[in-house]
Amino acid sequence: MVFYILKRILATVPVMGVVALFVFLMLRLSPGDPAAVIAGDYATAEDIIRIRETLGLNDPIIVQFTRWIGQLLRGDLGISIFTNLPVTTLIVQRLEPTIMLTLTTIIFTIVVAVPLGTLAAWKQGSLIDRAVMLFSVAGFSVPVFVLGYILIYVISIKLGWLPVQGYKSMFTDGVIPFFRHIILPTVTLSVIFIALIARMTRASVMEVLQEDYVRTARAKGQSEFKVLMKHAVRNAAVPIVTVIGLGIALLIGGVVVTESVYNIPGLGRLVLDAVLKRDYPIIQGLILLFSFVYILINLLIDLSYTLFDPRIKY
Amino acid sequence: MLRWTRRHVLAAAAVFASVIAGPVLPAQAESVLRVIPHADLKNLDPIWTTAYISRNHGYLIYDTLFAMNEKFEPQPQMVDSHEVSDDNMTWTFKLRDGLKFHDGADVTSEDVIASLKRWGARDGMGQQLMGAMGEMVAVDASTFQFKLSKPYGLVLESIGKISSNVPFIMPKRVAETDPFKQIEDNTGSGPFVFVKEEWVPGSKVVYKKFADYKPRSEAPDAASGGKIAKVDRVEWTYFPDQTTAMNALINGEVDFFEQPANDLAPLLEANENLVVEINDPLGSIGFSRFNHLLPPFDNAEVRRAAIMAMKQEDYMQAAVGDQKYWKTCYSVYPCGTPLQNDKGSDVMATGDLDKAKAALSASGYDGTPVVIMQPTDIPLLSAFSLVTAEKLRNIGMKVDVQAMDWSTLTSRRAKRDPVADGGWNIFHTWWIGADVIDPMSIAFSGDPEKGWFGWPKDNELEEARSTYANATSAEEKKAAAEKVQERLWTIGASAELGQFYNPVAYRNNVKGLIKSPVQFFWNISVE
């Protein structure tokens, strides 16, 4: 197992190298010039050239790339073109809101989606099953921002129960302010994943419920609850966990919209702003970070299979 | 397994209720003005960038030697008194007593001179001033002199400039930073102090009142007069989503919304707790800019024909909507400003497709396609682009609208290459009224080497601008300004698409807004 983990970690190096090259080239070859954005409406061509020189953007691409790789190897993600702050500082500033929103979304999604999908599979063909499927289709179809606006209008404006926007840290502002601000964004972002995972859970559990060992467990007099939780869900867990892992990648995209709608100063907004302004160091740093996180999550998902299925060994 | 007893249910209900109800907070000792600014503050150096948000940031933490009142007359601000020699070539200024930087150091002449040099290296008007400057001399700690090398009629207008780049005064050590590099020290002498530890770029900016700021005794009048900080803190929270911003204001989570979208104004106006009004008397002017270097708009008659087709009402209805927030204006200087006039503006006032078609036919237009750059991420400019496309097609021009984002547009508009190599024929933008208030605006340049994108070349225009810069009387300035306008319309430099206004919206317990083309945050209190 340890050897397997080490092998996977080492394998991230060439993957990250390819990602780094790809993102660097894609940015440099895309239209748009941060120097022109910085220079503004009053700019002359000379101003833009001068700014490009100051930022090192007129250097040959290979020189720029080598310089950046050298910085990366020293753990330095570079300096933001616009704010003149280290990219690492900007990422650290924005990390907590995104992590907390992601965590609460994942937890809420699992807590709701797995039981919902299991219930639908158990009561296959019933009104409950149809309701869960209807919710699944609707949840997958409604855009995140539409749902966000509706929740804000009803819960915040009309009922006045929760704030419209913003983020409060659990560690500095307190638990209650944190939850008050995170509830609506979490629900908004969760709906699409609940829809996805509930549907996947239903399909997996339905398949498992047809197995001989489930019939045997029932025949031996086990309660339906134990049949579901001890036999069905546990054996259906591997594909469910796989979809959860894939869903986390989708989560990164959903986080951008949710953070914009709810005005949460997270990484999603940071990358969106950086792309619009062509702040190359931030875009490069964040894409590398997201890639690394995604690789790590996939590793953890693969390792978790051993918990659900003892036959799986690495 | 946990069995829910009545105690558990009551405890859970209490937790739920407290989450919904919110915490009971102690009474706030500090007064805070919570603002939604029009953009996110990424650059802290208002000399390095011309971004308006950086300019607004500058006004909070810096001060200026002179400042414009609502009649656009430069008034002393940091300066206590000044004298001008009989030949107008030597200007002597004395600073007010007691001016301090946020670090406690006195503001001195050396700081002023260094700041003006840095500003003069980047700003167009500053470059004009420095071009006429023989030397700047620190006579003593609070007295400095301008010794001009040639007559220049806009000395006070230059150092009292209201919009980007504003000649903010910084400590000498900071002002000695290369003008093409950002400063790293944000010490100023303005009414507020920038709290860098709480800055989250792209999200939040915090300013606290500078206790040692010495305001002037006059009442505030646009950028001039007394700058009294009536709140302890100003917090800017940038919202990327206009609807959420509107809801936050309605819900009382913020106090002031600097630039709500015009289509949200009716919703805000309907709320009894909010005030929605136009705070900027000049508004903004929409521009359609031609590339004078490339066909077909290398021909002045083609440009004029295109302008004749562009009816301002159509642009304003498409892009702004409610007529409360726009008007037609055929002066190149904003209507309602001292230099407004109608010389040569018949071409813009035409708005007639048949006349435009006839003029295009007479111009010898040969069917060269017109590339219009359409920035789809800015709704106003996107609408302008589509209206222009329709107008030009209706008079017989071939049009190619190319969609892109603003960042791509800003880099492409700097290219002088042919269209096939990434060039362009038309882009749209707007200027705030304060930036086009006189002939010295870069938007009115006729020098393709130093001028604005589009690069018109007209020596007569440049002579008229130079005459304006050197004029010493109001009459001479007015005559020169009219000449500039006449040339701009004659050569068809740009089309002006109308004068429009963005309202501000704020809670009705916010008092003391100053009417100005720039949003200022002194004099504002939250009751």
What does it look like?
Helices cover 78% and strands 0% of the residues of chain A. Chain A has 314 residues and is mainly α. The longest helix of chain A has 38 residues, at 224-261. The model of chain A has no long low-confidence stretch (mean pLDDT 88). Chain B has 527 residues and is of the alpha+beta class. Chain B is built from 16 helices and 21 strands. In chain B, the strands form 6 sheets. Chain B has a 7-stranded mixed β-sheet. A 4-stranded antiparallel β-sheet of chain B has the order 4-5-7-6. A 4-stranded antiparallel β-sheet of chain B has the order 14-18-13-17. At the A-B interface, helix 2, helix 3, helix 5, helix 7 and helix 8 of A face helix 1, helix 7 and helix 14 of B.
Largest sheet data of chain B: 7 strands, mixed
Indicate the overall shape of chain B.
globular
Q: What is the C-alpha radius of gyration of chain B, as a whole number of Å?
A: 26 Å
Beta percentage of chain B is 15-25%
Strand order of the largest sheet of chain B: 8-9-10-1-11-19-12
Taken from the alpha-carbon principal axes, the silhouette of chain A is globular
| Oligomer state of the chains in this structure | heterodimer
Task: Tell me the helix content of chain A.
Answer: over 70%
In N-to-C order, the SSE pattern of chain A is HHHHHHHHHHHH
Mean model confidence by pLDDT of chain B: 93
Most extensive interface between two protein chains, with residue counts: A-B, 59 and 59 residues
If you compute it from the alpha carbons, what radius of gyration of chain A comes out, rounded to the nearest whole angstrom?
24 Å
